[in-house]
Amino acid sequence: MTARPLVQPRALDRARDLVQPPLLAAVSRLSDELQAPVRHHLGGGGKHVRAALALLAAEACGADAETGIPGAVAIELIHNFSLLHDDVIDGDRERRHRPTVWAEFGVGPAIIAGDALATLAMEVLLEDANPHAARAALELARASQAMIAGQADDMAFEPRTVVSVEECLTMEERKTGALLSCAAALGAILAGAPAATVDALREYGRHLGIAFQAVDDLLGIWGDPAVTGKPVGSDLRQHKKTLPIVIAVAAADGLAGEFVALLRGRLSEREVATAAQFVEGYGGRQATMQMAEEHLATALGALESVPLAEGPAAELADVAMFVVGRDR
Amino acid sequence: MTARPLVQPRALDRARDLVQPPLLAAVSRLSDELQAPVRHHLGGGGKHVRAALALLAAEACGADAETGIPGAVAIELIHNFSLLHDDVIDGDRERRHRPTVWAEFGVGPAIIAGDALATLAMEVLLEDANPHAARAALELARASQAMIAGQADDMAFEPRTVVSVEECLTMEERKTGALLSCAAALGAILAGAPAATVDALREYGRHLGIAFQAVDDLLGIWGDPAVTGKPVGSDLRQHKKTLPIVIAVAAADGLAGEFVALLRGRLSEREVATAAQFVEGYGGRQATMQMAEEHLATALGALESVPLAEGPAAELADVAMFVVGRDR
Q1: Which mean pLDDT values do the consecutive 10-residue runs of chain A (328 residues) have?
Q2: Domain boundaries, chain B
Q3: Residue-wise pLDDT tens digits, B276-323
């Protein structure tokens, strides 16, 4: 990817510093039995990209960062709820180089801990005295619903051999775009921004989400296991229908029986490598990189389409480039 | 139980008729992949007790039933979300004489379908034009959180041999009381009732919930499998720490090693019957019936503590008696 700052934008560190205390304060209200699994999960860290978008969007709309905090806390809670349930559903035993909650505490506690975080997100927003809090809570509920729909699509695609590029894009827009979109929109809503500004920030987040997911899809096949914390070619092993894969299958157009055969059954190390070569050979890698670039450009364009405070808008652009160009 | 009307109160039929259409309309907005598991689950029916409480509470506070509908739909959605996840957690393969969602569609779809219903509940309330909708949504989020805490307690108690009666009551108040309490409070909140009235209806629901759970605990040991849809003594088999059991263990006070031994391990038919006899012998059955009566009386008393419209208040009392005295 181009134009990638090599160091993590300051906005992400600041988001962590501003959001961790109120987030942990909210978590401390959960019942005793839920503290251990939730804290184990949160102890794995995270980049706080969604929190940063909420805070920067509030500032880009002329409010102070504090105005965005309930939105930032809520969106991080929803994101972590989704990770807890995804790990159960996908059977993933490790995340961020540590055991997942279900692997450490059991499936029941992981389900319940996720439920608690999702509910806590709504509590945090609805307890905010901000006059736009209810509108923000509705935005969050709708985005959560879209994300859940994306997860349902993702599951439904696994046993299918052929998924169209369009279906895949819709799934990824829901699964990842919805929350990034919501993060940016929440900041703007809590800042009391006009509808056109909220819409522009929503679009910024949506396209950034698609670009982000496209890059994640590349890492799911070609990422360094030491960095991603997942085995080589993990998406191929799990029969995930990610962008590079569905693009390659569409390009092969039924001509490559051997390739399609590799998208089923249990794959050996060698078969994973062969499948990855097929995906690359049929242009899946190149086309996905291209899509990530295009959606990043659209996201950056959305920031130019409405009047925003200059400094925070520039930071939103920095975060977008960092996130999409990240090498892990 | 005494004073039980033998026929189902009309309020429950009316609740089903009023709530099913908007509930199904809300469900139809979910993504395609979620429709089948959600509709399978809802097809099992249900008594619509929570919906009836929301509608009657709104009317008892001088509003029309329509005012309570978004609250009634939301509380039914949360209730069904909890059933979907409970069935996964407890490994129950049947509910209402039909396969549970995880047994029919898999664990992943059951988790996701539950998540979708929980989120939909918030959407339904927050989309309501009622000026008290945001306050109602916060009430619902807090009740959901309490219910989740109750579920976490319930799970944590299973491997323990001794659970105090107080711990058990707290768990049951959270697990069942929170939603019934919320149902009645939602109707009052949406009707714009004064705080004292909301509080009284919340108390009505809370005590009704405890009474309801106490009766359910009796059925979990002595219920007719043909009616409950669960095997004889299912709570004993699953090592659930329900009221009759914890009361009996407390009464045995360490004197009954054979009884306590029956609360561990895999039980045969015969051992289940013996354990049930121990529970009855140590007074667990009688004391639980007594508690159900007391909490029912407190619930009915709460209805007398504030001015309420007479007809709907009488129906709230009828529903309470029916629910607690029900013979299934």
Answers
A1: 63 97 98 95 92 98 98 98 96 90 96 98 98 98 98 91 92 96 98 98 97 94 82 84 92 76 84 92 96 96 98 97 72
A2: 10-305
A3: 999 999 999 999 999 999 999 999 999 999 999 999 999 999 999 999
- Which residues are within 8 A (CB) of B21 and not within 5 positions of it... i.e. 6 or more apart? none
Q: What is the ipTM of this complex?
A: 0.94
- Region of poorest pLDDT, from B78-87, B124-133, B160-169: B160-169
Helix, strand, or coil here: B41? helix
Is there a contact between B152 and A116 if contact means CB atoms under 8 Å apart? yes
Helix (H, G, I), strand (E, B) or coil at A267: coil
* Yes or no, beta carbons of A116 and B31 under 8 Å apart: no
Judged by CB atoms closer than 8 Å, whether chains meet at B107 and A122 is answered as no
The number of angstroms, rounded, from the C-alpha of A283 to the middle of its chain's C-alpha atoms is 24
Q: Across the interface, which of B112, B142, B156 has its CB nearest the CB of A33?
A: B156
pTM of the model: 0.94
pLDDT tens for B184-228 read: 999 999 999 999 999 999 999 999 999 999 999 999 999 888 777
Q: What is the dihedral angle through the alpha carbons of B193, B195, B197, B202, rounded to the nearest 10 degrees?
A: 110
Q: Just give the CATH number of A10-305.
A: 1.10.600.10
Compute the nearest-CA separation of B87 from chain A (Å). Answer: 10
d(CA A314, CA B108): 40
What does the pLDDT read at residue A229? Answer: 72
Structure confidence at residue B326 (pLDDT): 52
Q: Among all residues of chain A, which has the CA nearest to that of B86?
A: A108
**Do B235 and B217 contact (CB within 8 A), yes or no?**
yes
Q: CA-CA distances (angstroms) from residue B119 to A130, A147, B127, B141?
A: 22, 11, 12, 10
Whether A218 and chain B come into contact, CB under 8 Å, resolves to no
For B94, list phi and psi in degrees, rounded to 5.
Answer: -130, 145
Cα–Cα distance measured from residue B315 to residue B217, given in angstroms and rounded to the nearest whole number: 25
End-to-end CA distance of chain B: 12
Helix axes A107-127, B65-90, angle to 10 degrees: 150
pLDDT the model gives residue B6: 54
B293 in contact with chain A, both atoms CB, cutoff 8 A = no
